[in-house]
Input
Amino acid sequence: MAQLFKRWTNKIPIAVVAGVLLLVAGAIGFFAFFGSPRYTDVGYRPMQPLPFSHALHAGDLAMDCRYCHHAIESAAHANLPPTQTCMNCHTLILPQSSRLMPVHESWGTLRPIAWTRVHLLPDYAYFNHSAHLAAGIGCFSCHGNIAGMTVVTQSQPLSMGWCLGCHRHPEPNLRPAAEITSMTWQPDADHARFAAELAGRKKLNPPQDCSGCHR
Ligand code: HEC
Ligand code: HEC
Ligand code: HEC
Ligand code: HEC
Ligand code: HEC
Output
């Protein structure tokens, strides 16, 4: 009787198994890399020229974010505070502290403190702080609990998928204007109604088309 299958066809199952294994390994590698903090930058916390602590200033001392980042509600970019802002207090508070040396040096030389950027979008993506704050999105939604951080750490991926996730469905992140900088505010049981009313009144319309963010 003629053989229906040639002898080499015995190897097909092995080849299929090997192929599937390779694919699985590839997929794991793909997600391990592209989903990892290294790719998404979540957890990024560069060294700063001096140990400035948000946990102390914005947490324990309860200073409002806008005392230092004062331009944030009127400008696309949040300013970092000029040395003058630090000197408002540190001419009197701990003037001899070695940790404050870079502040006094900057004050003397008139050269700004060289802080290292933590959050950074590529140039081809357009972002505007003031538009988001006016819409009722708080710092917490995008930066996490800054007032609990001794060193600022990136807590969200800032990827396109992340932006779009909120743009498609911003309601859970909407809060009253007075709570924009609060790190402890919690939505109440009636949040859905509040959010729908706010979105309607402000006619919120987060862009989902390419030209909204790539202009
Ligand atoms: C006393 C002044 C001061 C206050 C108050 C303050 N900040 Fe800052 N902030 C700074 C300084 C200085 C830096 C730069 C050094 C650093 O990254 O720690 C900074 C950096 C940041 C960054 C990172 C910027 C980057 O490079 O990406 C974020 C985000 C931020 N602040 C958010 C907040 C929020 C939210 C609050 C309120 C809860 C707040 N800050 C309150 C002074 C302040
Ligand atoms: C909708 C998300 C979102 C909200 C809300 C938000 N930020 Fe940001 N923040 C970002 C992104 C994205 C960047 C990086 C911007 C870039 O690279 O152009 C950033 C950057 C910063 C920076 C660095 C300087 C700059 O503008 O690039 C500071 C400081 C900062 N944010 C502080 C704050 C504070 C304080 C608040 C609340 C009052 C706040 N942010 C609210 C997303 C947000
Ligand atoms: C509203 C007043 C105020 C402002 C403005 C302020 N600080 Fe402070 N800072 C304090 C107080 C209070 C302490 C804690 C003093 C203590 O521990 O006795 C402190 C502590 C510090 C320390 C720790 C010093 C040490 O030796 O432990 C550093 C560093 C620091 N501040 C940096 C800054 C920088 C940088 C700025 C400007 C971006 C700034 N501060 C703005 C009030 C302020
Ligand atoms: C937590 C929610 C949230 C996140 C995260 C978010 N957005 Fe938005 N964004 C909004 C809302 C709400 C509006 C609507 C504002 C309005 O219609 O007044 C908006 C509006 C905008 C606009 C139009 C207003 C303007 O500035 O011209 C741009 C552009 C934009 N977002 C870019 C981005 C980018 C880029 C990111 C990611 C880096 C991002 N957004 C992340 C909620 C969010
Ligand atoms: C809500 C804002 C927003 C919208 C809408 C948006 N993008 Fe993006 N896009 C971003 C941001 C932010 C980045 C940078 C992401 C990063 O750095 O990881 C980006 C990155 C990209 C990149 C670079 C590759 C990558 O994935 O990092 C391409 C290509 C791109 N966008 C194309 C598009 C196209 C095509 C559309 C329309 C279908 C679109 N974008 C709509 C915010 C947006």
Q: What stands out?
A: The chain has eleven helices and no strands. The pocket of heme C (ligand 5) is lined by residues 121-122, 125, 159-160, 163-164, 167, 207-208, 210, 212-214 (CB under 6 Å).
